[in-house]
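Continuing from the previous page...

OK, I double-checked the sequence for Polysaccharide deacetylase family protein against my notes and this is the correct one:
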Amino acid sequence: MSSISDQIQHLASQTLRKTLQTVPLGVSRSISSGTLPIFIFHAVESSPKPYIRHLYDCHSPQSFERVLDEILKEFKPLEDLSPAGIANAGADRFLVTFDDGLRSSYEVATPILERKGIPAIHFLITDFLAGTAGSRVEEKFKASLLIERLKGQSAQERQDVQAILSRRGYTGGVDEALMAVRLEDASLYDEVAERLGVDLAAFFEADRPYITHDEAADLVRRGFMLGAHSCDHPRYWELDLDAQVDQTLRSVRHVTQAFSLPYRYFAFPYKNRGIKPAFYERTRDEVDLFFTTSGWGNRMNRDKVFHRVGMDHQPDAIQALKCGWRPYPLSLIQ
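Thanks. Re-ran it with the corrected sequence; updated structure tokens here:
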């Protein structure tokens, strides 16, 4: 159960979103005139993959193109994606980013972006980037796939899965319990998969959710930018400071060295919740810019931390932007 403070925060956020939707874009633009609109996507699929379906929505190629056209009516693409170019850009430009390095961002979204002349930054989870098809994936992908496979299963099978999860303290509904499993307990997914007769390694090897090293290099050759998105996509608020720093610097070094990049970008997995000033002190010399989904109102390192507006579940880009484009201190309400 969420705390009273969490409930108040949620209510304040919902109220603010509804209010901001009524504000004309011109007013939002003037209030945030020094803030570059940055949009974040994950996947572009004709039909959501089963390992994504229970994590977040995704655009079809057609809806992705419609959203881009809507943005292009109001803003121009930011052409200079260097650290200085991003830091100095204003509200007349926009930037597109993709998190996780999913295969559809390369195979489906990139040709659309090229056709429309829109640059983008792709943030890669470095432990999942392989030269050939591999089986290591985001643990929550396994949860979503197993939830999908549980549909139509017998009551006994669901009870068996519930028993496996409850032994480690994950109670409540089976779907919610699967999603709640922490990274250190990820072996539970293998136990559940075995009970359901699902070969996780074979499934993900055949489907290959992520782009390969060669495909990432091809993005660079085609003029797109790359950044790091941690080593294995943990929730940073569940990590201690040393682990946060390690995940960040190892992934940034990997991307920078593997692709000979003259810049160093990092996007927090999920958000920068749980990040303290000491984190930035220990990483600032090796990261040029940080990107998150909750950070505009944070005075801490404001020159280096850039907020992004999530677009996976948004059919209306301008409404999404008005909700997320918040001048300080309104942006403290996430």
